[in-house]
Amino acid sequence: MHYNKTNNILGWLCFAIASTTYILTLEPSVSFWDCGEFISCAYRLQVSHQPGYPMFAMLGKAFSLLAMGDHTKVAFFTNLMSALASGATIMFLFWTITSLAKKLLNGKADAGKSQLMLIMGSGLVGALAFTFTDTFWFSAVETIVFAMSSLCTSVVFWAILKWESHADEPGADRWIVFIAYIIGLSIGIHLLNLLTIPAIAMVYYFRRGKIISVKNSIIALFSGIAILALIQFGIRGYTIYFAAWFDFFFVNTLRLGFGSGAIVFFLLLSGLIAGGIWYSIRRKKPLLNLAFLCIAFIYFGYSSFVYIPIRASANTDLDNSHPDNAFTLYGYVNMVQYGQTPLLSGPYFDAKNIDEKDGSTIYRKGKSEYEKAGKRLDYVYDHNTLLPRMWSTESDPYYAQNAQFYKQWLRMGDGQAPTFTDNLKWLFSWQIYQMYARYFLWNFVGRYNDMDGQQNTAGINGNWTSGIFDGAKHLPQSVLQSTNYTPLYALPLTLGLIGAVYHFRRKKRDALVIALLFFFTGIAIVLYVNQNAIQPRERDYSYVISFYAFAIWIGLGVIALAELVQIKMNARFAAIGSFVICLLAVPVLLLTKEWKGHDRSTKLTPHDMAYDFLNSCPKNAILFTYGDNDTYSLWYDQEVEGIRPDVRIVCMSLFSGDWYIHQMQGKMNASAALPITLPFEKYKEGIRDVLYFNDAKIAGPVEVKDIFDFLTSDDSRTKASYQDGAALNYLPTKNFKLTVNPDEVVKNGVVSADQQDKLTNTMEWKYPSNYVTKDNLAMLDILAHNNWKRPVCFTAFMPTEGMIGLQPYLYKEGFVYHLIPFKPDTGADKGEVKTNSLVMYNNVVNKFKFGNFKHAKNLDNVSTTMFYPDMLATFHELAEGLIKDGHRDLALKAIHKFDEQMPDINPDIDTAAQKFFMAQTAYKLDDLKLANKYVKSIDNFIADQLDYNYAMLQKNNMEAMDQRTVQFGVQLLSGLADTTKNYHQQDLSLQLQAQLKDYEGKFAALAGR
């Protein structure tokens, strides 16, 4: 069969296999993390968080239309977009591998069918191996930018190889222009695609360079890096920067309308590029012509970002940063509000801030001109270092946590100053090994489970394993029986390394290109991003193209193996044999091991978790959320499926932005504007960003409205003077009160009439912080002017500091705390969760959905470590609240509902402890059967964990031991033994006491360490 025809057919076969795999394992609804925001913004063409994804949003909108008006199917079809994009990525990977394989075999004597088999076999093995890798599969079944970004990357790398094979033909440089256009488009999806440029530059140099030498190769490489920098910082960043300053001149000097200067700038830029193209043609300068054409087509692709200010100007519900003008668009694209990461020079975590200097001026859009909003602060530290890796400053809210982790990781003593040696240890041991190499090994060696493993190199959670020696490790059954235990016996790694070595020996230039792609999409990202300590989640998705590059070598490993086998047999049998062996040893192995951990086809936990949050709220509630997983999926449920449009979601991590507060002052869906009375002029950027506490020695608590008026007054008597000459409002007291009219509270439906006698006339509490940030100020505005017309709620995941001291008046009603002015229960234990039990019972038992948790084929770690424990805690707290309020029958129904809907699992020791409380509640309610079931479940889990840790103790492998689990597990066993004894479960109690004695003896040695 003709090479091209075979190549095309098998490429499309790879697409079909990969796409079918991803569609069969597709998540049917929204996923956790950013997916909820991305689907919402695509469906309603809104503005997502930085750096924005306009091209992705428009493509997502097109796929969402396939739902044919069924809002519940929108997420499935946007997920389908990722599945098909990922399938196409595999197809282009196949064609990339066959192109490189063909070059490897070029000129060999045996150029018949065996050679064709080897080329196609290498393509199939490499492409299908990558199809089933952990990281790529994860992104292929949800609405996330990495699937589409990977497609763009695979297309441009395939295109440069296509150009290389036709470089001597007329018109071949159209492939270069095509690459430029795809790069421009990809900026509107994700920036990963830009990292292919150095490798592309080397392909161009090796094909067109007149003198190939080490010196010229280095020059070519740095030229590629310069082109990357030009596109990243010049075209992507400074284009908008210069447009902003043109606009500033036209608006502030010429008194023309907003946007006039930006339009003139883009017209001049277009004219300059067009003039350059005309000049290059006229003067017959082909390289200059190619350069200008590439710039033009990058801009054509990049023009998708026009979407951002257009949709921001439309004031969509989700409108992150409201980038409706060139200045805010520049800050939005360059993520200015996230701060700068030090790269070449900066402070260690122990550096002290000794001075502050004014940096660049911040401008904002005023009524008729751009106004100064202040200046950015440049901090001066008492010492800096080259290449700072262990960086974190005192201005960082997570500074103490980061500093402690640095010390713990590097085993630094108290008071020990970090050295440059420590800095390098951190770079290699955490940034490169723990946050890159570990991910690489997940994909090509194997993995224990999908739990977060950032903090320990030796533990099981989140660690890699080949599986070869696992039989001697006494692994817990919770690992061995997990759907996410995927030992790959290092076979993909081995074949890839064989392919890499063979490639370097046979085609050094091509191998160098792949190595550059591997480096720039892997280690280079690590160096550039410079992650400082624990991340909110594992970051393996950032390096997926590095794994893509390694998959090329997996494919070429087939040829290397065949050449080795040819010593003993003829070329045809060697080709067939090596293909079959490699196919079974890598892609088939990956498929069989990884499928069970990636089949999301029956999982609905993100959707239903969001549904439960929303349906825990009273009508027309104001719901304060905290971060990604208690916000983004809620946005999806509300914005796409129209679930509880009356609830106003307020994300506290955004509420400090003037643009977000301003949005909250308008109607959204079926939710009326929030009672925020402060005019924009009093809270816009640069005004009242932070107001500090200055004790005015006021006796007794002060009305919230009076405090708010004091904080927002322009009277000079309400301001304090600072050393820099600024006069700012200040917080005069931390003792707050809110006068309550019980009749109004009942009239507005906050509580039922039979609860009126529980209401207080005055809420009093202590504000916990030494300063008031803009989000706190807006919350005080709401409290002062709401007059109980809108219920105020907080998600159960809200950190205590986000509740501004209101905890004495927060009552759980499901997955949220509802602010209710009940008289404080002075007899309650400190920290005890208070419930509005009957309302909570109706919400939890009658309204909640459970994400098909009990029957889902696979559950991700967010479902098991967040949704499940929170559901467990919610039902336990509900049952205890009902018992306290005298509703034992309803309490029993509640725990039976949990047992009916949720599986009996123990993801970690903390969940087991929470289940122990549930078992105690079951005993209280005389349900001995259910209580004993949970006790046995907890006991089995603890024994499993303690047996593993004891095996590690015997081997003196203290790093692999989880001493917290040991300590906590033994305590739990003691609690189980005592509880079963108290409730007269003698046989069970004796068994637990015997276990406790056994384990106390086994771990007695730990007490002396």
Radius of gyration: 31 Å
Number of helices: 36
Distance between the termini: 71 Å
Helix content: 55-70%
Structural class based on helices, strands and sheet pairing: alpha+beta
Shape estimate:
globular
User: Overall mean pLDDT score?
Assistant: 93
Number of strands: 18
Strand content: 5-15%
What characterizes the major β-sheet? 5 strands, mixed
Strand order of the largest sheet: 8-7-16-18-17
Low-confidence stretches: none
Characteristic key phrases:
single chain, 1009 residues, five-stranded mixed β-sheet, three-stranded mixed β-sheet, 36 helices, 18 strands
Would you kindly provide a brief summary of this structure?
55% of the residues lie in helices and 8% in strands.
List the helices and strands and how they pair.
Layout lengths: L2 H22 L10 H9 L10 H11 L9 H32 L7 H19 L2 H7 L4 H21 L8 H14 L9 H12 L5 H40 L6 H23 L3 H17 L4 H7 L12 H8 L11 E2 L6 E13 L4 E12 L3 E2 L12 H12 L9 H25 L1 E2 L29 H4 L5 E2 L3 H16 L1 H13 L2 H7 L14 H22 L5 H28 L6 H11 L6 E4 L6 H8 L8 E4 L6 H7 L25 E3 L9 E2 H9 L6 E3 L5 E3 L5 E5 L2 H6 L14 E5 L4 E3 H12 L6 E4 L14 E3 L3 E4 L17 H11 L13 H24 L3 H14 L7 H16 L3 H27 L8 H20 L3 H17 L1 H4 L2
Parallel strand pairs: 7-8, 7-16, 10-13
Antiparallel strand pairs: 1-4, 2-3, 5-6, 9-15, 11-12, 13-14, 16-18, 17-18
Model description:
The chain is an alpha+beta fold. 55% of the residues lie in helices and 8% in strands. It is built from 36 helices and 18 strands. The strands form 7 sheets. It has a 5-stranded mixed beta sheet with strand order 8-7-16-18-17. Strands 10-13-14 form a 3-stranded mixed beta sheet. Helix 7 (145-165) packs parallel to helix 9 and helix 30 (861-884) packs parallel to helix 32. It is globular. 48% of the residues are buried.
